[in-house]
Amino acid sequence: MRLASRVAVLTGAGISAESGVPTFRASEGLWRNFRAEDLATAEAFHRDPALVWTWYNWRRETIAACRPNLGHYALAELEKQKPGLTLVTQNVDGLHNRAGSQRVLKIHGDIWWVLCLACNRITTDLRVPLPEIPPHCSCGGLLRPGVVWFGESLPTATWAQAEAAVSECELLVVAGTSSVVYPAASLAPLARSRGVRVIEINTEETPLSGAAAISLRGPSGELLPLLIESASKD
């Protein structure tokens, strides 16, 4: 960490769960007898946009009450130390930005973004709660959440940037991700194929643990600050 000038970081749901953000795989993933997997789809939105937006309105309210944890702040500090750092996140909650990170590749989108289905304009809407369900664009078109739903492809340009960052980095840190959700889970093997060392931080063993150069077991909010503090010492 101390010697690497180009560092890439991949974060997943675990780092945000430490801030109280519900995960899809936890018991909180059940909402009004609906599974998240049944609501976060284009088909569900086409059938009942009001229902899907009511769920997203609840999610936005829940996330708005959460705060970045020490893991988020540690990565923001690391960005200051390493101008070549690229932070790739699977999370849509915006907590990295709220902690101060500037260069964030959001491969699954952002829950605070809204996409107009009529004019295709993407804007940020931080209002909680939303005054209208479902919300509409200034052009009159129906808005959808600016996130990647099940069955949809990742944003091409953002994913290309993520792959490029991992291909060019000297160190990859993977924090709070199960390493089972593709294509994000392909980034660590991509780094390893180039001989790049991978540091994993997770509370549990994952499919990446045995292949990582270093696998640290524990919360990101505890281990990331320690790792980055030790790397900043001469």
Plain-language structure description:
- By secondary structure, the chain is of the alpha/beta class.
- It folds into two domains: about 1-20 and about 70-110 and about 155-234, 3-Layer(aba) Sandwich (Rossmann fold), CATH 3.40.50.1220; about 20-65 and about 110-145, SIR2/SIRT2 'Small Domain' (2-Layer Sandwich), CATH 3.30.1600.
- Helix content is about 35%, strand content about 20%.
- A six-stranded parallel sheet has the order 5-4-1-9-10-11, with helices on both faces. A three-stranded antiparallel sheet has the order 7-6-8, with helices on one face.
- Helix 6 (about 95-100) links the parallel strand 4 (about 85-90) and strand 5 (about 105).
- Please summarize the sheet with the most strands: 6 strands, parallel
Give the name of the CATH architecture of the largest domain.
Answer: 3-Layer(aba) Sandwich
What coarse outline follows from CA principal-axis ratios? elongated
Share of residues in helices: 25-40%
Please name the fourth-level CATH homologous superfamily of the largest domain.
TPP-binding domain
What would the average pLDDT be, to the nearest integer?
94
CATH topology of the largest domain: Rossmann fold
Report low-confidence residues grouped into runs of 5 or more: none
What's the quaternary structure here?
single chain
Keywords: Cytoplasm, Metal-binding, NAD, Transferase, Zinc
Family: Belongs to the sirtuin family. Class III subfamily.
Main location: cytoplasm
Organism: Paludibaculum fermentans
